[in-house]
Write a structure and sequence with these properties.
single chain; 179 residues; alpha+beta; H-NOX domain; 4-stranded antiparallel sheet; 6 helices; 4 strands
Length: 179
Amino acid sequence: MKGIIFTEFLDLVDSTFGIEVTEAILERAQVASGGAYTQVGDYGHGEMVQLVVALAEEVKVPIEQLLMLYGKALFARLVAIHKVDMSQYNSAFGFLLRVEDDIHRQVRKLYDKATPPTFLFDEIGEQRMVLRYMSHRGFGAVAHGLILGCAAYYGEDLVIERTALNESGTEVRFVLERQ
């Protein structure tokens, strides 16, 4: 995983829970990198799992809730950092439909080792969208948070139903409905 995912996570922990919690989870997790991340570095996704588990233990908040919080915050940060022109998309659905071609394609060009998740669309309508998230990392809760962040960006109220399609969580079905 790219280091930006780690640096943004630790920034979120700092701002939400305090630097003392950040230091505590780094000590508790004992990650291979020692917790010294650079935005462009490459790190195993297992380190993120260790950090999230350590955070959940430290703050007594369920892992699922923390991953969704992180995903929601990460959306706005990635838009800002990468200067994504969000005006070219008219809605959360419009953005999500273009993630593969506009965002993930650029990520693969910029970072030769990057393996972003894949989104496949099973249903596309004005009020309802059904998509499948696929990633060897199994971070469906982060994807859920990212979708929430996207909806918030466009000021949309979406009801999101998430269903794991396998035990490892590497394939997840999302049903999005506009309210």
